[in-house]
Specification:
alpha/beta, 290 residues, nine-stranded mixed sheet, 9 strands
């Protein structure tokens, strides 16, 4: 039985894809994290996994619901993977927080974007004057959702890019998972961009290099699982009546500590992104400026 998921790692587990399918998998340890890198190199692999050709990095961490300090190894592991995905010689970067800030499981993107160290307005001469000559121009945006604004996030991002001309875009969004063990303890990063809402059956316009013209790094944390997947995950029973399964697939389940999870996950992601984009600055300096 196949359930919807945004995670390339789970899609690979479902399909058992391998090198002969144009899918390579590399696993390694990083700090307190386990990192799995999946690279889809062919159209055959893309079709089998239901994901575009590109790199998908999954960082499995201790739960976000547990406390962490600013130099926690979880943040360092995520920061290092973002650095690897960021194209070389990238100057200006636009960070976009996708999602609905009024719905807690979907508020990861907006909350992360609020803590991004935006520097595009700081002139080069001012940066040198305050002792930060290598400051990277960064801007951030929270486009909201179509139901709030009447504007697709992709349309709003293109409008911002016309004025700011970034070399790359980083998006942050909440994801869906197939297994409850992935909720609140997994970060997925990819260089293929994102289709917002795809994991919960609410597909919006694609945000990718193909649609924006610059590299797009998509970062996400799974915060929900549909009820049908939850039943299967717990019981292993595939014989769910079709009518009941259809009803269950419309229900999204989230942990009861989701508010704490979102608060801590967004803080960690924002700090990891800030550190990756401003490698010449230490953590404490960045924290004092945001």
């Amino acid at each position: 039985m196949v359930f919807g998921t945004d995670l390339a790692l789970e899609r690979r587990e479902i399909t058992n894809s391998g090198k002969n399918d144009g899918v390579t998998v590399t696993k390694r340890k990083a700090q307190s994290a386990s990192v799995t890198e999946i690279e889809i190199t062919t159209d055959v692999g893309a079709e089998k996994l239901g994901k575009p050709v590109g790199r998908y990095v999954t960082v499995e961490l201790p739960p976000f619901s547990s406390e962490f300090d600013d130099t926690d190894s979880r943040m360092v592991a995520v920061r290092d993977e973002i650095k690897k995905l960021l194209p070389k010689n990238t100057s200006g970067v636009l960070v976009v927080g996708l999602g609905n800030s009024d719905i807690t499981p979907d508020a990861l993107g907006p909350k992360t974007a609020k803590d991004i160290f935006s520097t595009r307005h700081i002139t080069k001469s001012l940066a040198e004057e305050i002792g930060l000559p290598s400051l990277r121009p960064v801007s951030s945006a929270i486009p909201g959702v179509l139901g709030q604004t009447g504007i697709e996030s992709a349309e709003m991002i293109r409008g911002i890019m016309n004025e700011t001309s970034p070399d790359a875009v980083i998006t942050v969004d909440a994801l869906s998972a197939r297994s409850i063990k992935r909720l609140g303890c997994t970060v997925q990063m990819t260089d293929t961009g994102i289709v917002p809402g795809s994991g919960v059956g609410n597909h919006r316009a694609e945000i990718s290099r193909k649609t924006l013209g610059v590299p797009v790094i998509a970062i996400g944390v799974p915060t929900v699982v549909d009820a049908a997947a939850l039943v299967f995950d717990i019981t292993g029973n595939e014989n769910i009546p079709q009518s009941e399964r259809e009803r269950a697939e419309k229900m999204m389940v989230t942990p009861r500590e989701i508010d704490v999870m979102i608060s801590r996950a967004s803080r960690l992601l924002a700090l990891a992104i800030n550190c990756a984009l401003q490698p010449g600055m230490d953590v404490q300096t960045l924290l004092s400026l945001v």
